[in-house]
Design a protein that fits this description.
The chain has 135 residues and is mainly alpha-helical. The chain contains five helices and no strands. Helix 2 packs antiparallel against helix 4, helix 3 packs across helix 4 and helix 4 runs antiparallel to helix 5. The mean pLDDT is 84.
């Protein structure tokens, strides 16, 4: 009555990927929310009594690599403002990672139509990020 090793070993399947993707979305949102919340607390501790002047618009004319470098330097220094920004970036990256995981799932399943569709979605995301920071 003993099952062979081949019968007990399960194949990594679609349900496993769905579980991983669901956990990625769930934990990604919670982590980004936590980072932004902690950043908000730190920001309010240091700047809670500041009065903002919204009469002058200050354009931030940086490319994406300068923005990423500035954010990581700000996070490393413990700046509340940059922790909030980093939380927003994490929130943005959560569905992007979901698309990348879906791509790997479709490759493993050898569903090439959806591989092509997912690659098109990834190219749209990359294009929109690239042109969103350019002038």
């Amino acid at each position: 009555m003993e099952k062979s090793k081949a019968m007990t070993k399960e194949k990594f399947g679609e349900k496993d990927f769905q579980s991983i993707i669901g956990n990625l979305l769930r934990y990604g949102v919670w982590i980004s929310l936590s980072v932004a919340f902690i950043g908000g607390i730190i920001y309010l501790m240091h700047h809670g009594n500041d009065v903002e002047d919204y009469s002058v618009f200050k354009e931030n004319d940086q490319n994406i690599f300068e923005v990423i470098k500035t954010v990581f330097n700000g996070v490393a220094s413990g700046s509340g403002e940059y922790l909030i920004f980093f939380g927003v970036i994490l929130l943005f990256l959560t569905p992007v990672f979901r698309v990348l995981l879906s791509l790997f799932s479709f490759i493993i399943e050898k569903d090439y139509l959806y591989v092509v569709i997912t690659l098109i979605v990834i190219m749209i995301i990359i294009t929109s990020i690239s042109f969103g920071f350019s002038h």
